[in-house]
Amino acid sequence: MKLLEGKTSLITGAARGIGRAIALAYAREGSNVAFTDMVEDDNMKSLERELNALGVRAKGYVSDASNHENSQMVVDQIATEFGRIDILVNNAGITRDTLLMRMSEEQWDLVIRVNLKSVFNLTKAVQKYMIKQKSGSIINMSSVVGVSGNAGQANYAASKAGIIGFTKSVAKELGSRNIRSNAVAPGFIITDMTHQLSEEVRQDWIKKIPLQRGGTPEDVANVCIFLGSDLSSYVSGQVIHVCGGMNT
Ligand code: NAI
Question: Which pTM does this prediction carry?
Answer without folding.
Answer: 0.98
